[in-house]
Amino acid sequence: MAPSTDFTAWQRQHALGMLLFTGRNLLRVAKAFWPLLFTLAANAEWALRVGIWAGLALLLAVAAFSVVQFRRFGFRIRKGALHVRKGVFQRSRLVIPLERVQAVHLKRNPIQRLLGLTGLSVDTAGSKGNELELVALRLDFAQHLQQALSEAHAVDADEAEEPDRPLFALNIRELLRVGLSMNHLRSGLVALALPLSLAGQIDGLVEGWIAALPWWALPLFSLLLVVLWFPALLLVAGLGVVTSLVVAVIKYFGLRLDQTKSGQFSLQSGLLNRVAFTIHRTKVQTVQWTSTPLTRALGMATAQWSQARAGGTEGAREGQLRIPGVPRATRQALDGLMFPDWNEELPKELTPQPIYGWVLWARWWIAGALLGWWSVVAGALVVAFGAYWSFRTAKARMARCSPEAIAVYQGWWKQRVTMTQVHQVQRAAFRQSFWHAYRGIAHVTLFTAAGNLHLRFLPAAQAQALVDYVLFETERSDRPWM
Amino acid sequence: MFENPLIAEAEWPKLAETPFKPLPPAYATQRKAVAGLITLALAVAAAVPWGLAAFEVEVPGALKWGALVASTALSGGVWVNAVVGFLYMGYAVRRHDVTFKSGWLFRTRVTVPMSRIQHSEIFRGPLDRWLGLSTLRIYTAGSSGANLSIPGLQDETAQAIRSTLISHGAQH
Fold it and tell me: What residues of A are in the B interface, CB distance below 8 Å?
């Protein structure tokens, strides 16, 4: 496609898209009718006679439908809005103002790579799924479209002068370190659960297989399991590490983060499915840094940039940009880009009152008392460990505030720092119970479009001042928050 | 060089010094009406074991007295909450934000800046309509459900607040 593609006229996807459409529709049909297919496969003789013709007819019908669907599907960019028309029987037209576009992703799965095509999808804050999903585009066409869709933000002349600059990339050694620092326990369980769930689906097959075994096989297996529990444990652990490494390579291979000319951030990664995610700085609502003892030992942390999400998708993974394995210096550089006035040396001014640790510990007493009913030693151990855990947790919790940004720190084992720009706060809540009011304590919750910041057990006067300050900053700011 | 904005005595407006408006007395009536309905339902529930006993069905005494005590305590709590909870409710509409406070055991004060409001709605239930009251619900980006909801406003007040919100939106 020529660079001078005129996006104001209706555009179709690449003709090979018909193939992808057909494949996708066939999969849908197969998914909808798989019990039927299954029964047919069981009565193979009858199915061969009738099924071939019916299947052929169905294939043709699906292919014809897909071609019409492909031809009906069009999109264009006109007057600062993206127009989409689609549908065969039920037709729809969609208009999305470009300034509402949250992020534009480019994706390539192995099939698309084979055909030399690229997929592109557009996120808006209004819906859970993608508003526009294109599957078959030539790479340069997709890149131009991505640029055209992002042009709404390219008004800033200073930003436009800046060249594309690389911010961060993972080489193969760092990639393996990311794999090593993942949660191996979870990976091991996933690795175990996968064959088990597969086995569950072909239950009958496994049962038949077991029935075919000689009578001495099962007791022998049980005996082996009892004798070999330690090697088995090692096997699970090893499986976990290997799975982590494989997952890391598949997900984060060739990961790189750049800042484009128009001030957008662009993240690319993936071995099989190559994903390119583009997002403008103002669309990032919260930045969260997570680290575990493992990642800290390797001097890394994981960043997660979240965009505004549609209602009720609390904890949803979509619309988040994850950057694993970020070293300390890069972390400071990224924070500097996101929050220009941020500084790690800021005082720890918003610390919880000491009572917070005691409140956390009180919960462990309940568990300890219940256990103590059964065994006093176990109860005492739980309460003692609870003391350690609670006071360390309480001590780790604090917040820092620069004039434009606020960061909440929590956790000592798994550490999390959640940051947002003050003017991106959507609403603020000041909470206290009657007992807190008496003790002069209050909680503050700052709600952003991508999640909440909880500041707990602050001195009431400070909590009050924080809410007043955040409201003042938010209300006088005329910068875009989205 | 760096100024600490939280500790410094600042010029930003202080929410605690804002006079909060109480909700109209009709809303107190509404809360009492709801409490009355709940008490009625609880009384019926408590009367069931006694009624069964009157028809010579074997009912353990613990159940009869337990139900009576529990429903009395519960309806007492509902009444205290209806009356005392009302006293702790209040709202404030400033030029740039809307605040609602509520709760007597657990107190919450939520503020939504007007420039962050996505949409608003006025809700009127059957009891509300009978007493001429409205609930104003305000929604912001990024979460489900109403993010600020002021119950028991006089219809005209709710309309007036809403038009303030809308006109604020129009300026920006």
Answer: 125, 285, 308-309, 311-312, 314, 343, 346-347, 349-350, 401, 403, 425-434, 437, 447-451, 462, 464-469, 471-472, 474-475, 481-482
